[in-house]
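Hypothesis: this fold can be encoded by more than one sequence.
Test: take the structure tokens below, design a sequence, compare later.
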């Protein structure tokens, strides 16, 4: 059993469904079918959960550079959090998805990027909630609006120029979070150019959890990152800055807080190669 303030069990969440200081966020999403997550939410979700869409809520509009999922504008995101009832540094936000934290971890990282530390992932995700027979509904829930004033941690994000300038420094590690086939360039289903940023190490994000979406123990995460734990900065990227957040979550579980997000990730990097 993984123990962290950033993880809650289905049992814990069920016991706190009526807690006014707990807000639940449904982050289910499918890159190949952007409407699917919301359709699933409409059919069935954890009672009281609010749906947050990767494209519409957790990203800003795509431009020529900047990647496929640019970070949302902080003020707009803060307003969204307030609208679903989040009070800054008071409300516990519990995020879940059905994709091994691929999208819930993005919300986890964004909340902390805005200075809100009270956020956790639901261990086992939607599947764990269903398998344990806890209540689901198709009903909408209207929250009491919260008050959210962001305190943005600008140092948590790097851009393409930062990566170019720092990736080869001995005190810096560059981590590619995609699966090994995409890292090696054998397969590229999304972006127009295959391969990886020169000098990057491959730590696939799927290694963070079991196939059933249960997180590995803290000891597993510590072992996973032990070769990089003394680096001053660990710059993490993926395809578009989404699943990289799963690795940033893993670093946090390992007690390593030097991780930074290259938000544009490979989709931004390769936009300069065409």
């Amino acid at each position: 059993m993984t123990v962290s303030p950033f993880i809650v069990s289905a049992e814990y969440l069920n016991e706190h469904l009526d807690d006014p200081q707990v807000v639940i966020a449904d982050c289910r999403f499918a890159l190949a079918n952007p409407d699917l997550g919301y359709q699933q939410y409409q059919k069935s979700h954890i009672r009281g959960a609010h749906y947050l869409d990767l494209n519409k809520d957790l990203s800003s509009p795509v431009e020529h550079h900047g990647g496929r999922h640019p970070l949302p504008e902080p003020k707009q995101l803060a307003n969204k959090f307030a609208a679903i009832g989040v009070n800054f540094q008071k409300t516990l936000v519990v995020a879940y998805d059905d994709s091994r934290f691929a999208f819930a971890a993005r919300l986890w990282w964004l909340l902390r990027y805005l200075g809100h530390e009270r956020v956790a992932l639901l261990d086992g995700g939607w599947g764990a909630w269903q398998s344990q027979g806890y209540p689901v509904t198709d009903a909408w829930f209207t929250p009491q609006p919260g008050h959210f004033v962001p305190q943005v941690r600008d140092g948590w994000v790097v851009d393409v120029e930062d990566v170019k300038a720092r990736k080869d420094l001995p005190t810096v590690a560059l981590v590619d979070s995609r699966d090994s086939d995409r890292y090696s360039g054998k397969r590229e289903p999304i972006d127009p150019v295959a391969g990886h940023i020169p000098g990057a190490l491959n730590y696939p994000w799927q290694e963070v959890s079991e196939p059933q979406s249960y997180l590995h123990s803290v000891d597993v995460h510590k072992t996973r990152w032990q070769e990089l734990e003394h680096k001053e900065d660990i710059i993490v990227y993926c395809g578009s800055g989404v699943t990289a957040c799963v690795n940033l979550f893993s670093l946090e579980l390992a007690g390593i807080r030097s991780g930074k997000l290259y938000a544009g990730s490979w989709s931004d990097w390769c936009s300069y190669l065409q």
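The longest strand covers residues 22-26. The CA atoms of residues 233 and 258 lie 5 Å apart.
Hypothesis status: open.
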